Amino acid sequence: MPALAHRHRHRVVMIVVLILGGLLLSMYWAGRLAEQRVWLERSQEAGGQLELYAQAIHTQVERFRSVPALLALDSDIRDLLENPDDAQLRHRLNHRLEQQNQAAGSSVLYLIDLNGETLAASNWSEWSSFVGSNYGFRPYFQDALAQDTGRYFAVGVTTGIPGYFLSSSVKNAAGQTLGVLVVKLELEDMQREWINQPGILLITDALDIVILSNRPAWRFRHLQPLSEEVRHSLVAARRYAEQTLQPLHSKPLQRVAENSERRQVDGPDGRQTYFWQRLPLPEENWTLHLLQEPQQVAASIRSYRLAAAGVWMTLAFLLLYLAQRRKTRRVEQRSRNQLERLVEERTRELQTAQDGLVHAARMAALGQMSAALAHEINQPLTALRMQLASQRLLLDSGRSEAVREGLAQVEGLIERMAALTSHLKTFARKNPAGLPQRVRLDDVVEQALQLLGPRIRNENVAIVRQIPGEAWVSGDAIRLEQVLINLLNNALDAMHDSPVRELRILCREEAGTWRLSVADSGGGIAREHLDQVFEPFFTTKPVGQGLGLGLAVSYGILRDLGGSLAVRNDAQGAVFELTLPAAEKPRTDNSRSDA
Ligand code: ADP
């Protein structure tokens, strides 16, 4: 059917689309999941790395934090601030600061008075000596005056070397501020150590300007746009000295966690996407940044996607297989049910057909018989009429004894006719196969012979009949009688032209059954017909005389009664053998069959 094929194709296309759709979806979803996981892992890793850097910076700065505060307690320092013109004291302090700077490992150690003038410095003897320079404009100086301490990252005005300046105010016994002591740390060494580390490390100050980096090209770039005002203040403080500040443009692509995201960066090496991790350093007011190239992530995502695709396909095919199996089972079950229904229907149809046949055959036999019966009944009727006439004469002459005798004969004739008609009535009834009855075979044969009596006498047929009185079978008297009438009729037909006409009806017991044989002297059945005689509509008789149903119906009846019917030939003619299950004989054996 084209519609069905169309629907089938439609379904196949749907399933394929579904599988492919699911495949894409699962791959996409796995990719997303993998991305999230991988990024999170990366973020944790980068966070750990940044912690290490932060630790290093912290240790470095912490070592020097207390240095200026401790030195501020030195009485020579206070003396010099109170007497700035004491050349001897100044000389001594220069030496002292030089020694202490060396011992502490800091870059420069120096003392500034309230005007910002440098009075003494550890580098007093070098070309870059701070002595005499004024640093009053530096925020670390101003912060120390205002709040006792200051810290500030800047590029050295004198040296041009960037450094971290830690300052502390110097006070006299009365608590008055006399000046400021400063220690400068150059973080260049630390920065140099980081050069070989993977990824790009940036350290930005509060203004988001990169003050340190393991990639020199990235230094002194500002991550945020700088307002004119800020630029101005930077120039005033000479914070980055002569360094030009360039912007570092970037735009966010995807946020991964609080301090990590993917950003597209227009860096010194060109445009590139980085995985960008931040770690704030609140004490210094700095922020550490780690920028990594996100390559390996793609490989992880691919393997996640492949795994998801594999799982999805396995699942899809498993589902398909299960669905197919269920369908096959359903179809099988349906066709089995259909078959069962069909068989039941056919059986019922056959049963009704057979019942119909039985009835039709019976009616046909009845038709045949009624002609013979009319003839048979006519005879006693004529006899009766004559008897009655002679009775009247006898009555007139007063011979009552002779009348009584005559009446008995009349009674006999009437009884015979009654038997004939009553039997005919039961025979014509359409009898559904009821419960098996107990039937005496001799009675059944007797009835059948009586019905065929006229023909037997007309055709001068000799009957040999040997049936034991105790031959009780389980069956149905009327239907058995129909079988016998069929067999006897056939036998009479066969012997119609025979010189010898002899019917032998014999019965013997055999293994729980009774076997009744009806043999004739009609010459038997042609060998090639022996297999066919039980087939419906098989007949060798001229049209109008035989329907070919008698034996088929008889065969069916015996099978229904739990017996069988067989045929063979003997020297004289055909022999039909009926086998019927034996029934227990009733205790009062003088009764006739139950029927
Ligand atoms: P019908 O008698 O209407 O032909 P039956 O089924 O009773 O149908 O018989 C079928 C055929 O079997 C008969 O036509 C006949 O050829 C054959 N047949 C039956 N009984 C005998 C018999 N006793 N002797 C010879 N042939 C017989």
From TrEMBL:
PROSITE patterns: HIS_KIN. InterPro entries: dCache_1, HATPase_C_sf, HATPase_dom, His_kinase_dom, HisK_dim/P_dom, HisK_dim/P_sf, Sensor-like_sf, Sig_transdc_His_kin-like_C. Keywords: ATP-binding, Cell inner membrane, Cell membrane, Kinase, Membrane, Nucleotide-binding, Phosphoprotein, Transferase, Transmembrane, Transmembrane helix, Two-component regulatory system. It catalyses: ATP + protein L-histidine = ADP + protein N-phospho-L-histidine. The chain crosses the membrane at residues 12-31, 304-323. It is found in: Cell inner membrane. GO terms for cellular component: plasma membrane. Its EC number is 2.7.13.3. SUPFAM superfamilies: ATPase domain of HSP90 chaperone/DNA topoisomerase II/histidine kinase (SSF55874), Homodimeric domain of signal transducing histidine kinase (SSF47384), Sensory domain-like (SSF103190). GO terms for molecular function: ATP binding; phosphorelay sensor kinase activity. The keyword Translocase does not apply. It is a multi-pass membrane protein. Residues 372-584 form the Histidine kinase domain. Its main location: membrane. Pfam families: dCache_1, HATPase_c, HisKA. This is C4-dicarboxylate transport sensor protein DctB.
